[in-house]
Every structure is written in C-alpha cells, then in structure tokens.
Specification:
single chain, about 180 residues, mainly beta, six-stranded mixed β-sheet, 1 helix, globular
Length: about 180
C-alpha cells in the first residue's frame, strides 16, 4: 500500500514528459548529390559496368589492379573460400568474402572503400599489413567503410571477410 501511494505521489509531481517514450531521432536529409572530396568523386557515379570477380583462393591471382573507379565486386560463400593468410577477423559461415590482387606501382596511401560493412585485410608476402586508419565514408555518400594502408611498390592481396551480401561495390585508390 505504501508503494502505491508513493507511485501516485511521484506521478502527481513529475511532468508528463518524464513518462513519455523517447523522441524518435530526426531523419538525416541527404543532398541529391553528396559532397565528396575530389579523390572520391568517382564513387558518386553508379558502379561501373566493369565487374571484377574476387578470387576464392590466392592461387589464380593475375595481379591486375582493382582500380580507382567504383566497381561491382561479386564475392564467394564462406565454404568456397581459401584465404592465403588467415584473416584477422574470424569468418562467419553465413557471410561472403574474396581476395582481390592489387599491383601497386608507386608508394603511397592505399584507400579502400566499400558500400557495406566487411572486414578488410591487406596481405603482402604472407604478412597482414597493419591499417593506418579506418572508418566510414562522408555522410550520405553510400560509403559504409573506408580503410587506409601505407604501401610501397609491389603486389598485395586484398582479403574481404564477412561481407553481408554476395556482391558489394568497392573502390581502391592510391594517394601520394
């Protein structure tokens, strides 16, 4: 009985808003054409008609560059993947991945952008290269994940792990 009286007393002195459900978060309004830095300008275009197929293993890599244009990237189911180096993130059996060879001609900062969340490892000579920074792309750009690596001249293997769908859009570019 005492608790009931206390509850009624509190309800009488607290404003009605104290019991209201939290307000919905205001929806973000995006401009028709998102503002992107010049280096990411090609992301705003639809994925190119060129499709690069991710390898299911590192045995058949022809070392062609991914390129700086937004590209459709079909991936593989977990059970058909054989990563050259064990990914830093444990693969999820219900997700997708693949490997893309990248031939770097000049040293610089390799920026990899994806339209979906996935784990990204960059491998050179059997060793995972430590990322310099990672995060999301600019607001409203459609870039879900960006990871950057310092690279030198040579061949690398980009490993994508735990992508949510069988195809994602990807873009890789080299900053000086």
């Amino acid at each position: 009985m005492t608790l009931r009286i206390l509850a009624i007393s509190l309800a009488a002195i607290l404003p009605a808003t104290a019991f209201a459900a939290p307000a919905e978060k205001a929806a973000t309004t995006c401009p028709a054409a998102p503002v992107l830095p010049p280096e990411l300008a090609d992301w705003a275009r639809a994925a190119s008609s060129k499709t690069i197929y991710a390898y299911g293993d590192d045995l058949g890599a022809d070392w062609s560059p991914l390129g700086a244009a937004r590209t459709a990237l079909p991936l593989h189911k977990f059970e058909s993947l054989r990563y050259g180096v064990a990914p830093d993130r444990k693969p999820d059996v219900y997700k997708f991945g693949g490997m893309i060879p990248i031939d770097v001609k000049n040293p610089g900062r390799l920026v990899v952008a994806l339209d979906a969340g996935a784990w990204i490892d960059l491998v050179r000579d059997g060793v995972v290269v430590k990322s310099i920074t990672h995060g999301h792309g600019p607001a409203c750009s459609g870039i879900r994940k960006m990871v950057e690596f310092d690279v030198t001249h040579g061949r690398y293997l980009l490993q994508i792990v735990n992508a949510p769908t069988a195809s994602i859009d990807a873009m890789a570019l080299l900053r000086d």
